[in-house]
């Protein structure tokens, strides 16, 4: 087995190489996969290529749906959103610069008008000279009208700039939300999960507030995906995500951790509450049957395995994830379709 190394291929044969590589490595044949392989073989994203080669080396050359989704979300999706956010940020800065220029123009205009008034106040003709007095009043009215017209124009321009900045700010917020959301399931993505988990650790350390971390994995997802296709696999992922949303309380952070794996942060939860929440989702899935939309074929029930860990003082992001993941692996070793806590893993290790 040889690794596919990007080597600056010519445009006319790159697409053929992509298709050949996808076949060689049993990669799914949907547009996202093509985009990932194209970026890899073109050498456009060296970090993606390194990650792809690591996957190929560790999986007997097979690159599955979960691998493609992880590479896309980690490298291509993030890169696209970063460019979009940068463009919007530059537009915001441009609008702010324009608004500041308008403010400077308004100040300069006000200073000019003030200077004219001061000069005219020194040149007030005697009341007996009616002709000069009339000319002075006309000049004062004309100058005031000009200033009012300038102020009205500047006010309109400022209002338009403020409106544009509000629109751009909303676009930035939308881009940030998109950057933190898994597009397939609508759940938080791994980047958001890591931010929120670190926040939960910081709050637990400062305020001594407990929280539980649940790691979940869909049982036999790869076999299911191979048998029914990736579109049906996407339907499975959405079903699990929807069930988690239905069963966990609002302040829980529910995440698509990667591929068919999910992570849930449960604030104010000890190990008992964490296991109860995990079991609620697992049992809810057992009551739901998956129907293939294209054929109305009943595909049966989906099961998941779950692992639960709770915050311990001194925990880092990696340490608590590792314990929850170890509990998840124990659930799979024990036969899948079950919830295992970190305490049960410790007990099992003591017996062993």
Question: How does this structure look, described?
Answer:
The chain is of the alpha+beta class. It contains eleven helices and seven strands. It has helices spanning 11-24, 31-42, 46-58, 65-122, 130-179, 190-207, 221-228, 230-247, 271-286, 317-333, 342-351; strands spanning 211-218, 253-258, 261-267, 289-292, 297-301, 304-310, 339-341. The chain has a five-stranded mixed beta sheet, with helices on both faces. A two-stranded antiparallel ribbon has the order 4-5. A hairpin with a 4-residue loop joins strand 4 and strand 5 (297-301). Helix 2 (31-42) crosses helix 3, helix 3 (46-58) packs antiparallel against helix 4 and helix 8 crosses helix 9. The protein is elongated and about 115 Å long.
Record the SSE blueprint:
Elements: H1 11-24, H2 31-42, H3 46-58, H4 65-122, H5 130-179, H6 190-207, E1 211-218, H7 221-228, H8 230-247, E2 253-258, E3 261-267, H9 271-286, E4 289-292, E5 297-301, E6 304-310, H10 317-333, E7 339-341, H11 342-351
Parallel strand pairs: 6-7
Antiparallel strand pairs: 1-3, 1-6, 2-3, 4-5
Helix pairs in contact: 1-2, 2-3, 2-4, 3-4, 4-5, 7-8, 8-9
Order of helices and strands: HHHHHHEHHEEHEEEHEH
Question: Termini distance?
Answer: 38 Å
Low-pLDDT residue spans: 5-9
Per DSSP, the total helix count is 11
Q: What percent strand?
A: 5-15%
| Total strand segments | 7
Please compute the radius of gyration using only Cα atoms: 32 Å
Global shape: elongated
């Amino acid at each position: 087995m040889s690794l596919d190394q990007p080597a600056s291929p010519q445009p006319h044969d790159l697409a053929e190489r992509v298709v050949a590589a996808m076949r060689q490595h049993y990669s799914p044949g949907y547009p996202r996969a093509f985009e990932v392989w194209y970026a890899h073989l073109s050498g456009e994203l060296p970090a993606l290529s390194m990650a792809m080669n690591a996957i190929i080396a560790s999986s007997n050359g097979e690159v599955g749906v979960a691998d493609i989704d992880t590479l896309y979300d980690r490298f291509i999706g993030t890169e696209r959103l970063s460019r979009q956010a940068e463009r919007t940020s530059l537009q915001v800065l441009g609008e702010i610069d324009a608004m500041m220029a308008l403010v400077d123009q308004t100040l300069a205009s006000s200073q000019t008008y003030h200077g004219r008034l001061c000069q005219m106040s020194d040149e007030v003709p005697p009341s007996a000279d009616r002709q000069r007095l009339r000319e002075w009043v006309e000049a004062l009215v004309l100058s005031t009208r000009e200033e009012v017209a300038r102020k009205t124009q500047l006010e309109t321009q400022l209002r338009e700039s403020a409106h544009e900045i509000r629109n751009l700010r909303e676009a930035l917020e939308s881009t940030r939300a998109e950057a933190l959301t898994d597009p397939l399931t609508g759940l938080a993505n791994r980047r958001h999960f890591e931010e929120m988990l670190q926040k939960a650790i910081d709050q637990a350390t400062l305020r001594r507030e407990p929280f539980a971390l649940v790691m979940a994995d869909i049982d036999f997802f790869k076999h299911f995906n191979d048998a029914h296709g990736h579109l049906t696999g996407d339907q499975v992922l959405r079903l699990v995500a929807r069930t988690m949303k239905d069963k966990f309380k609002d302040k829980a952070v529910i995440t698509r951790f990667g591929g068919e794996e999910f992570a849930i942060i449960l604030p104010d939860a000890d190990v008992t509450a964490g296991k109860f929440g995990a079991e609620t989702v697992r049992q809810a899935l057992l009551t739901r049957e998956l129907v293939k939309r294209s054929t109305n074929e009943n595909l049966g029930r989906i099961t998941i395995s779950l692992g639960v860990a709770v915050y311990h003082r001194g925990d880092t992001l990696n340490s608590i994830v590792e314990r929850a993941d170890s509990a998840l692996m124990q659930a799979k070793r024990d036969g899948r379709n079950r919830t295992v806590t970190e305490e049960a893993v410790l007990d099992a290790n003591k017996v062993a």
